[in-house]
Amino acid sequence: MLALSFEHALKNQELQVYYQPQACTDTGEIVGVEALVRWQHPYWGNVPPSDFIPIAEKLNWIWTIDKWVMKTACQQMADWHAAGYPLKLSINWSARNFQNPDVVDRVAEILKQMQLDPVYLEIELTETILLEDFQKALATMRGLCRLGVRVALDDFGTGYSSFFNLKQFPFNSLKIDRSFMNNLYPNSKNAIIVKSIIEMGHLLHLDVVGEGVETEEQLEFLHQHHCDAWQGYLLSAPITAAYFMEVFLRGDRKFFSLREKSLDAS
Ligand code: C2E
Ligand code: CA
Ligand code: CA
């Protein structure tokens, strides 16, 4: 029943890709977008990914969905690059995809087809990756790295054996889970954890991204502690490509620029 729904969803264009902008913490420039899938079902309305992704994983539809998201978002990115906006694209992958032996070839094919430089593509993974077949996952990740695609560890701090994952897998960046963004007052547990993750990430030569930033205070904290980039409702919720283009690329919307802010203040 649900497998049929996925088939219909893809055929009838019920799936859509939304984009959440990511900004450089230091300059405020938009450096990339995270692609997030949306499902507008004709009867059920808007079905959140947290509801349907686990089912798609169980029914073995996840690679079909993730591949469709990757293709759609890479096409969009190629258009933005051609228009003069060299943004990075982050996509979310289920750990399941790492068990599929030909995913690296499919990624290479799509990048070639879209004439997109692999350094602009980043694949985000959650830590459950290790719960599946470790050797296969490692081989897939190494294949992606050889292609030049970047890999990010998503939701850092919430899963299993985070440090083991960081040690074993060739990640390029890590994203601090949004559950740590609350109560970032001096010496609070979250403040100490976030500060430590940023420091550790930098010592491991990883880019560190803060997620779920909703207030100026949270952004200020990330800036003070040299977090590389951030995303969250303070900048924007995930939005359609057309809206992103209008507001962030063509529009004269002023981004949060802490550098400008401190110049203004001086
Ligand atoms: P995620 O990768 O951690 O994505 C971030 C989620 O937090 C998104 O929820 C986003 O809308 C939400 N978010 C962003 N900024 C804020 C904020 O400031 N505050 C709060 N409270 N929330 C914020 P979304 O789009 O519902 O996605 C949920 C999860 O579903 C994602 O978590 C990701 O794990 C998964 N997902 C989404 N799209 C895909 C996809 O194409 N493939 C796969 N495999 N998983 C996906
Ligand atoms: Ca993500
Ligand atoms: Ca996340």
Written overview of the protein:
The chain is an alpha/beta fold and 266 residues long. The protein contains ten helices and nine strands. The protein has an eight-stranded mixed beta barrel with strand order 1-2-4-5-6-7-8-9, surrounded by four helices. The longest helix has 21 residues. The protein is globular. The C terminus is likely disordered. Bound molecules: ligand C2E and calcium ion (2 copies).
The main β sheet shows up as: 8 strands, mixed, barrel
Strand order of the largest sheet: 1-2-4-5-6-7-8-9
> Segments where pLDDT lies below 50 for 5+ residues?
256-266
Cα(first) to Cα(last) distance is 63 Å
Rg, please?
Answer: 19 Å
Number of strands: 9
Total helices: the number is 10
Series of H and E elements: HEEEHHEHEHEHEHEHEHH
Helix content: 40-55%
Q: Assess the beta-strand content as a share of residues.
A: 15-25%
Shape: globular
Class from secondary-structure proportions = alpha/beta
